[in-house]
Amino acid sequence: MALETSAEAPVPVRTVLQAVGGWIGKLGRIWVEGQIAEFKKRGNTVFLTLRDPIAAVSAQVICTRQVFEAVAPVEGARVVMFVRPDFNATRGSFALTAIEIRAVGIGELLARLEKLRAQLAAEGLFSVERKRALPFLPGVIGLVCGRNSAAERDVVQNAERRWPAVRFRIEQSAVQGPYAAGEVIEALRKLDADPQVDVIVITRGGGSLEDLLPFSDEALLRAVAACRTPVVSAIGHEQDSPLLDYVADLRASTPTDAAKRIVPDVAEQLALVTQLRDRARRCMRGWLDREQSWLDATRSRPALADPVREIERQAEQVDALIRRARQSLDAGLARAGDDVAHTRARLLALSPAATLRRGYAIVLRYPGGDDPPQTPPAHGGPAPHAPRPPLRGDDPGPPGTVVRAAAEVSPGERLTIRFADDQLTVGVDHE
Amino acid sequence: MTDREALSYEQARDELASVVKRLEAGGLTLEQSLDLWQRGEKLAAICAEWLDGARARLTAAMAARETDGAPGAEAPF
């Protein structure tokens, strides 16, 4: 049924449109699946934009109010429609006329989510080893949330209550509907690229399974897994668990819970710090006191406190030595004095003077001279017979030869007889 | 003995203890014991300086906290 045309034999517009309409009409009635991007009600007619679940393409759908209200789908809902593709030849526009709309069954959605969950789990995206620890005190907290949402207020206000100086960088995005996943991914990339952001929180309030579907979007889950920054999932209520909860580094049950998880309670921490500081100071003071007493004790030890004592000790030693030296000298002198006395006594004992006193006399001859030499007279002129001065032990007088036998002397020889105190010169008779 | 020594408190304290021990053990020349005693005095002064410094810092820290005011006023929080 191709149109036979040429430059000389063109067909009018209406013919072309009719032909297109004819071709489209040949499609008949078909089942189509998509996501409702938006809809407008006008009179008894509803105009919908049906978006492809994956590709960024959409088609217009027209249906009656009755058909639409049978399901009453919301924006973002996944639906299956029984449609008739229609070409409006008058306007040259293409639309699908819906004869029946069915919501994609909850059971089926759950089955699809479960399949995706199993697949990502098999890839290891949910493994515990991949989880990163959250910083104790984050510098800046990245927050992905809906515009003016309650979730945003919950996170920000609760975090500020715990830690007044907390800083946020907030990226708002759609959090439901066909564009939510893409916008959240975009916000996530921005925050992850900011080096000041230490943790990212993705949050939204509770909603139906369909509302939360963007947070089970495979592309979003992969983007979260690829983030360098730890990601906290805070979607809906306790019972909601989009797949984001599995891939995030931390799952918070609610936006409020997320605030508790990402910042410490400053009052609690301050109390702890104060307590620790007091303990540290007490400890420090105790140490100081201990060391100070040790130092004081050491300084008061005689070795340090009284160095004069050491010098005195040395001086005492010197004194003692002097005393000992003097004592030794005294003793030596006394001994020497005694020796002299003894020697003198012995000398006296040995002196002939004592013998002479007992009545003995010594006969002396002076050979070579008739007369014994005279001591110079102490009393005037020569006195040959004058008595000699008394003998003293230490003055033996001029030497002479002791006569020991009569035979030693010749007649006429003069001899000197010495007594204890004086002497007498005699002549020798013949014999 | 250098004049300005960078001795830690523990070094000064341990050396002081050993100086006193040697002084008390005796058997030294007068000059040795005088030198040791002088060294001991110096070490004791170094120890005292450390302790005084530490005490001053501790006191300053305690005083600072009292003027800090409300816990919320502390900067990092």
Q: Any overview of this molecule?
A:
Chain A is of the alpha/beta class and 431 residues long. Chain A has helices at residues 13-25, 65-69, 106-123, 150-162, 180-193, 218-226, 244-247, 255-262, 266-300, 302-305, 307-350, 352-357; strands at 30-42, 45-51, 58-64, 78-88, 93-103, 140-145, 168-172, 197-204, 231-235, 250-251, 362-365, 401-402, 414-418, 423-427. Chain A has a five-stranded mixed beta barrel. Chain A has a five-stranded parallel beta sheet with strand order 7-6-8-9-10, with helices on both faces. In chain A, β9 (231-235), α7 and β10 (250-251) form a beta-alpha-beta unit. Chain B is an all-alpha fold and 77 residues long. Helices cover 73% and strands 0% of the residues of chain B. Chain B has two helices and no strands. Chain B is rod-shaped. The model of chain B is unreliable at 69-77 (pLDDT under 50). The chains are: A alpha/beta (431), B mainly alpha (77). The interface between A and B is medium-sized, with 26 and 28 residues.
